[in-house]
Amino acid sequence: MSSNTASSSAGSGDSSAARKNSKRPKCIDYSSALLSLTLLDSKFTQQELPACKPILTPGWVISTFLIVSVIFIPLGVISLFASQDVVEIVDRYDNDCIPAPARTNKVAFIQGAAPKSCNRTLTVTKRMKQPIYVYYQLENFYQNHRRYVKSRSDSQLRSPKFENQISACKPEDDAGGKPIVPCGLIAWSLFNGTYTLSRNNTPLAVNKKGIAWKSDKEHKFGNKVFPKNFQKGNLTGGATLNPDIPLSEQEDLIVWMRTAALPTFRKLYGKIETDLENGDTIQVTLQNNYNTYSFSGNKKLVLSTTSWLGGKNDFLGIAYLTVGGICFFLALAFTIMYLVKPRRLGDPSYLSWNRNPGGGR
Amino acid sequence: MAGERRHKGMRLSKLYSFKCLKPFSKEDHSQIGSRGYSRVVFCNDPDNPEALQLNYRGNYVSTTKYTAANFIPKSLFEQFRRVANIYFLVVAFVSFSPLAPYTAPSVLAPLLFVIGATMVKEGVEDLRRRRQDIEANNRRVLVLSKNGEFSETKWKNLRVGDLVKVHKDEYFPADLLLLSSSYEDGVCYVETMNLDGETNLKLKHALEITSVEESSIKNFRGGVIKCEDPNEHLYSFVGTLHYQGQQYPLSPQQMLLRDSKLRNTDFIVGVVVFTGHDTKVMQNATDPPSKRSKIERKMDKIVYILFSILIVIAFTGSVFFGIITRRDVTDDGKKMRRWYLRPDRTTVFYEPRRAVLASFFHFLTALMLYGYLIPISLYVSIEVVKVLQSIFINQDQEMYHEETDRPARARTSNLNEELGQVDTILSDKTGTLTCNSMEFVKCSISGTAYGRGMTEVELALRKQKGMSMRPQDDEIKANPTKSVKGFNFWDERVVDGQWINQPNAELIQKFFRVLAICHTAIPDVDGESGEISYEAESPDEAAFVIASRELGFEFFARSQTHISLHEIDHVSGEKVDRVYELLHVLEFSSSRKRMSVIVRNPENRLLLLSKGADSVMFERLAKHGRQFERETKEHIKRYAEAGLRTLVIAYREVDEEEYRMWEEEFLNAKTLVTEDRDALIDAAADKIEKDLILLGSTAVEDKLQKGVPDCIEKLSQAGVKIWVLTGDKTETAINIGYACSLLREGMEKILITLDSPDIETLEKQGDKDAVAKSIKKQLREGMSQTAAAATTDDSANEKPEMFGLVIDGKSLTFALDKKLEKEFLELASRCGSVICCRSSPKQKALVTRLVKSGTGRTTLAIGDGANDVGMLQEADIGVGISGAEGMQAVMASDFAIAQFRFLERLLLVHGHWCYRRIAMMICYFFYKNLTFGFTLFWYEAYASFSGKPAYNDWYMSCYNVFFTSLPVIALGVFDQDVSARLCLKYPLLYQEGVQNILFSWERILGWMLNGIISSMIIFFLTINTIASQAFRKDGQVVDYSVLGVTMYSCVVWTVNCQMAISINYFTWIQHCFIWGSIGVWYLFLVIYGSLPPTFSTTAYQVFVETSAPSPICWLTLVLVTFSALLPYFTYRAFQIKFRPMYHDIIVEQRRTERFESGTRTASAVSGELPVQVEFTLHHLKANLSRRDSWN
């Protein structure tokens, strides 16, 4: 643009010369503090930058819907297949593992001293390739409660130096004046159920190593921090910890302390590193120690393989199919509408739409 | 320069004899020494102990709002005057308590960021002002030092009483009293452009006693000035100079004000009277008026709605929380339900036994948690956006006026979007619609009309009557190409010296001699080219001198006693120099309405040359001078109809005897110092201005500004109503109305006037009620007229605005009365255009207020003069024309443009865009915050309403500031539905703003609903796809941090993509910002996640280690983003099909046009609209008229 050439004249030293300079808008010279736009050309200042935005012509609308459905439906199918590939055995045991006579007052039973051992038998209905993951699933357990989530001390977990940083941990902060390591409600309520698996009466090894996140083990839980005064308070919560093993090796704790987002959650218990064949029966001897009865939470044992997509959940596939289907339907509907009822003049129904020009976005 | 030399030695003061000798009102001067008039200045003696005691402020000037010391507290105070900021501050404080759902720094940081950004903006602005101050304070000036020599010093070191010397083209450093100048009579010329924008030169006089040589002025000591205290009145000054035992009254004539400039004078010497902030210009500096736009006011309401939503959902959560918490302990209080929370040993916030209290505290927590519904950055973003929008307005090349070198200026950025909603424009006429620069177009000499040119009014009238546009096309072509400013006269009988062949050549010669001699203009000869230009007091006068120059009577020199012309002798046809001895100038005044000069011509005959208004001139004609009276009157009438200003030209010969007697009397009157001196002078002048011989009349056109009719046409096509408020006569106003297509052919004129004889008699009797009744009757009649038209035409009428209302000033007085104003307004709102003639400045403001408050719609007032200031301040938007008539209007305005026609672009383009942008921006802001805020709420429901946010604290803090703000700002600054060209091509598009379609409640609530739906889709799809199963191949399950990151990513993607599909203008900037924001989120995640875990807590390595390698997270993201956009997209597709908005159709039209123009050979873009556009426009119009009928 020609205006750009009319830049400030040479003798801009004194004010009168500056006054004579053209005030023609050239480039933004005083807004440099806000945005340094000085280098941009006048297409910019005149707001005539080249712009491209498809408008919603029938063609665009229909093809957008079609493209989305064409992508989504296959994705849904793939996801569903992935989910179908996963073999999952879920066994709810919270009710069955309480002896029938004690079922009237489950809380009393779980808090009592009676043996909590319980045997379950699972049948493999489809071949499961290793690794097979063992989870426990709790329901109606609010690990995401604000009080619960906050009740931990990250610095204490990391380094023995910060042993005394327990202010967030109340009431499980100290026992008899000595700081509890690890402190707080989360650690205190550590899950204490155990599972022993055997297949056809031969013990099935459950590998409990490598179930925690690497970053947790290496950076969040110190290898020089040892449990101290744990579960020594006047009320015992969940599991106890071996005070001779550093926290970074206590993977059950690490898994537990990575709090779940939702009240229904699974936690990794271990891995079975052998294939299970179709028809295998698996005996589980479990210690039904954990009290979910007082808040009517369920407990489940889950054995599951994984696909590239993770565990078994058809929702993703179905959702993709649904959305893809809806888009396809919309594409169809719009095609029909454009064919049958093109926007034309004088259509009475159209008129009534237009009567009220307000609204809409 | 040689030019200046010539001035030397002449007593120019004589020319202005009336002005400089005007008696001073005794009243003012008697006040000196009393309260308000207590200033004492010791001239050239600032070190006088008495002077030191007075301790007047120095000349140091600071216009900054803040100082280094008070910047922080003061600007903080300014910030927290906003309610929203207070809310966030309170939240920030409370966040230090255990109530807070998140950590305190994460709340403080965005608040500090937002406040900091605003403070930085304030600081930068202030710094700029400071820099200007420093520049001004350090300018150099010559000041008389103790050793009696002038030496340089800085402005800021000047003291009251200093003697300063200012050279040509320098600014005055303070308010000075003029003592002497390079002219020996002590005059000087100043240009006051910085004060009032007037570019013409003003003459200032020193007192005779002080106007002495430079060498002797140095010894000017012992003078004491007693004068008024500092005040803001630019045009008044009261004071006396006590010098050598005498008192000399001082007037504004001796004052040289700071920031005005010395012109045409080599130097002046003055004494400093007011310094620094005491100067008139500083006293005058006021803040621009603060107005708020309608959208912002509505936005406040929306914020209240959001607050209510916030309270409702917080309350709901609290109720649930209370119930759940109570149940944590069994009724007997012995057993714990959720034992892992240790309800037996808990704090008050979770105490089951005091659940009500706990839920109350939870309510407070929730208020903070859902505080994200209230966009913290909205106010700041809007401010930033508006400032940037203003920059674009200022930068617009199309609104830059080359001739005056003035770009458009948005003086306030508050009202940008209001420009898009203007319903009524109230415009001044002179200087606004017209140029206020006069052109000599016609004249009538001895009963013959000369001048072939057509005025714009005539052209317009012809056009209206259906005649061909330019019947004299060929003649106009013959017009010499040389165009002279102020001269638009062409007649083959007169130009190029042809007049000497006319039968009445002698009279023509006399006529132009009068024009060339009878004036007060000063010639300015360009040394190189020899061209002459004139400095005249009024544009009319300049036009006359120029006209006579062009026709062979070139006025080239003026001395104290002589006026010299180059003339063409009508007998020989040769160019001769003639010198007229100037004896007296009888000045123009509004009461005299005429001006005369008495000269002695080279033939030694005494002549009185006179020009004046027809009303006063015809009665002064001699019996034998009325030869052409009838024709001339006829011509004058015709000229008036053509919208021209006329003056009658006459002369007489005075014989020596009579002159001598008169002169004695006149000089007597002049030297009188009594109160009635003026009257006596007038009477004396009267005595000689009689028995005149009529020569003819002149007609000068106050040209319509370029493009005014087109602009008005466009604006009325856009459905904007235009009212013209003018001081002109009814006829002139009507003609101008036609000329600028305000009144059109086929429009019915409703005239409301009190100019009928019977009403005049009524008025004389003082019967106000009867007059009011007559007005009422006229209003009623007008009303029934419009009503009748409405019924006959029904809704199918194509021209709903068939009426033009013309009302004169007197009637307006009655119409603005409380009793009648409603009827007046109703009638006026039924008319397309309204013209109020003869209206006073106050009436202008009253009319504006009536329209504003009566219709509740946005009004825009536009004007250029001081008389429009009231109107500009009263209207929702004031637009000042930065034209010739001074700066007062501009100073009072919100926007300043150089030409009326720029209004079209200002409204239809910038106004439309800004309205759109701000409306969209606010809607989108609420959308994005609701989307975000409601995901928090849904998550709450899954966390037993404990107040745990779904996301990491810092994600949330950065949401408004980093991940979503830039695209919104880009939207606010750059978005445009259609290009500027199309905005102008389809002015009806503007109605989107006037009817407030883009910011209607349906639309706002629609966006809010969209936000809530999006949040539901995001939340429920996310938690179901990545529920409890493993989310990776390695069997790991989702925890709190992964869910948070995934959901948050979905939100960021959704709101940014929503932006991408809802904006209309997609340039690289938008691409940059939208995709950049998403990029920034991931960048943030990586960087934040790599910080030590004590700081990053749940975000530690979450992206790199956990969620990025998980395909299900990405698949969820794609699914959720598309699903969340689907409702809007579908809605929009349906809307475009069934209920397209106006801009949609225009965009479509534009695309097909471009597409077709590729295939078609025809290059011209057809003005024809496709049927559906016509259809929609038709509806829009119908809607408009319907709306009008509701009023």
From TrEMBL, chain A:
Specify the protein's topology with respect to the membrane. Answer: Multi-pass membrane protein
Subcellular localization: Membrane
Top-level taxon: Eukaryota
Q: Which residues cross the membrane?
A: 60-82, 318-340
Biased composition range(s): Low complexity:
1-18
Q: Does the keyword Transmembrane helix apply?
A: yes
Single GO cellular component term:
Golgi apparatus
Keyword terms of this UniProt record: Membrane, Transmembrane, Transmembrane helix
Write down the InterPro entries for this protein, in alphabetical order: CDC50/LEM3_fam
Q: Does the keyword Cytoplasm apply?
A: no
Instruction: State the family it belongs to.
Output: Belongs to the CDC50/LEM3 family.
Q: Which PANTHER family match?
A: CDC50, ISOFORM A, CELL CYCLE CONTROL PROTEIN 50
Q: What is the protein name for this chain?
A: ALA-interacting subunit
Recorded source organism is Brassica campestris (Field mustard)
Question: Upper taxonomic classification of the species?
Answer: Eukaryota, Viridiplantae, Streptophyta, Embryophyta, Tracheophyta
UniProtKB/TrEMBL annotation, chain B:
Entry-linked SUPFAM superfamilies: Calcium ATPase, transduction domain A (SSF81653), Calcium ATPase, transmembrane domain M (SSF81665), HAD-like (SSF56784), Metal cation-transporting ATPase, ATP-binding domain N (SSF81660)
Question: Which intervals hold domain P-type ATPase N-terminal?
Answer: 41-102
Residues of the active site are D428
Q: A single GO CC term, please? A: plasma membrane
Q: Where on this chain does ATP bind?
A: D428, K429, T430, E541, F588, K611, R645, T726, G727, D728, R838, K844, N867, D868
- For the P-type ATPase C-terminal domain, which residue ranges apply? 890-1140
InterPro entries named in the record: ATPase_P-typ_cyto_dom_N (IPR023299), ATPase_P-typ_P_site (IPR018303), ATPase_P-typ_TM_dom_sf (IPR023298), ATPase_P-typ_transduc_dom_A_sf (IPR008250), HAD-like_sf (IPR036412), HAD_sf (IPR023214), P-type_ATPase_IV (IPR006539), P-type_ATPase_N (IPR032631)
Q: How does it sit in the membrane?
A: Multi-pass membrane protein
**Keywords from the UniProt entry:** ATP-binding, Magnesium, Membrane, Metal-binding, Nucleotide-binding, Translocase, Transmembrane, Transmembrane helix
Membrane-crossing ranges are 83-101, 107-124, 302-324, 360-382, 918-939, 954-974, 1004-1026, 1046-1066, 1073-1091, 1111-1131
Q: What CDD domains does this protein map onto? A: P-type_ATPase_APLT_Dnf-like (cd02073)
Q: Which reaction does it catalyse?
A: ATP + H2O + phospholipidSide 1 = ADP + phosphate + phospholipidSide 2
| Biological process, per Gene Ontology | phospholipid translocation
UniProt GO molecular function: ATP binding; ATP hydrolysis activity; ATPase-coupled intramembrane lipid transporter activity; flippase activity; magnesium ion binding
Q: Which family does it belong to?
A: Belongs to the cation transport ATPase (P-type) (TC 3.A.3) family. Type IV subfamily.
Q: What does this protein do?
A: Involved in transport of phospholipids.
Q: What is this protein called?
A: Phospholipid-transporting ATPase
Lineage summary: Eukaryota, Viridiplantae, Streptophyta, Embryophyta, Tracheophyta
